[in-house]
Specification:
alpha+beta; 5 helices
Length: 292
């Protein structure tokens, strides 16, 4: 039985507020202590009480939660992961957004889902992540760690040339708008949009998919999860754009970029009765055919 859980939400739209309210109500009714991180300071009637603890930073909590609910869309889920990645706390996503690959608990099924969690009727899926080894501390003094993907992209209209080395062995030169370096989790995100393969969430592989390559012979490639990548750029521009999930910044094009798998995995919650393949079919209408 769960004793203490945290809720993270950053969107202040009505659907997300209602989702947070419903979740708090269901948890409080079961006597579960709720640690609430929310951008809105609106009171959560009717159950704002001593069993609810508001906080602004996970690191300030005196007692860590057993589980963190991310309420919003997949973007909110990625931000939640960034905040708890060093704490080893599983994350469950309540979807009040659109797609819901990561936030896979429907907002209208919160009561049923809380019951399942209280019965331990779920499994933990451990997901691989990526890390930018060089340049270091790109994003407000923090390491660049991504659950979905890291991308290197052109910063203006001109394409860029990217020389890629895998474990110091030359792989290929890409003349393109950029590259998507993706985890299995991110295979259904930007990687999917540029024609990359779909991998199951527990796969440890790394995918490299070009963005609008100028060579018809270039295709995405799947590498071992232990691979260490080195990228050297050239181009007519002085800058390129590097992204790490929802974060981004510009770099000088003469800076070398090194990427590898992160040494730890992220724990995410998958309720029993739901699975990655049903999400594919339902969210992407995978295999849909009017004849069936």
């Amino acid at each position: 039985m769960l004793q203490r859980v945290a809720i993270f939400s950053k969107d202040n739209n009505e659907r997300t507020r209602n989702g947070v309210q419903s979740l708090v109500t269901e948890l409080c009714s079961r006597g579960i202590h709720v640690q609430l991180h929310q951008s809105s300071e609106e009171p959560l009637s009717p159950c704002e009480n001593d069993n609810i603890e508001r906080f602004s930073d996970f690191r300030t909590l005196s007692d860590m939660p057993e589980l963190v609910f991310s309420v919003g869309g997949d973007g909110t889920f990625l931000e939640t992961v960034l905040k708890v990645k060093d704490l080893g706390i599983p994350v469950a996503g309540v979807n009040t957004g659109r797609m819901g690959f990561l936030a896979n608990i429907p907002g209208e099924e919160i009561d049923k889902s809380v019951d399942q969690l209280c019965r331990n009727d779920y499994e933990i899926v451990e997901r691989s992540m990526l890390e930018i080894l060089k340049p270091e501390y790109l994003f407000e003094g923090e390491h660049g760690v991504a659950l979905n993907e890291i991308t290197i992209q052109k910063a203006n209209l001109s394409m860029i040339t990217i020389h890629v080395y895998v474990n110091e062995v030359f792989l290929n030169t890409y003349w393109a708008d950029g590259l998507v370096i993706s985890t299995a989790t991110g295979s259904t995100a930007y990687n999917l949009s540029v024609g990359g393969p779909i991998l199951s969430p527990s796969d440890e592989s790394i995918i490299i998919s070009p963005i609008s390559p100028h060579n018809l012979t270039i295709r995405p490639i799947v590498l071992s999860g232990g691979s260490r990548l080195r990228m050297v750029m050239e181009g007519r521009t002085q800058e390129c754009l590097i992204t790490c999930d929802f974060r981004f910044r510009k770099l000088s094009i003469d800076q070398e970029i090194r990427i590898s798998g992160w040494g730890r995995k992220m724990k995410t919650v998958m309720l029993n009765g739901r699975d990655f393949y049903s999400t594919l079919r339902n969210r992407l209408m995978w295999g849909a055919d009017k004849r069936n």
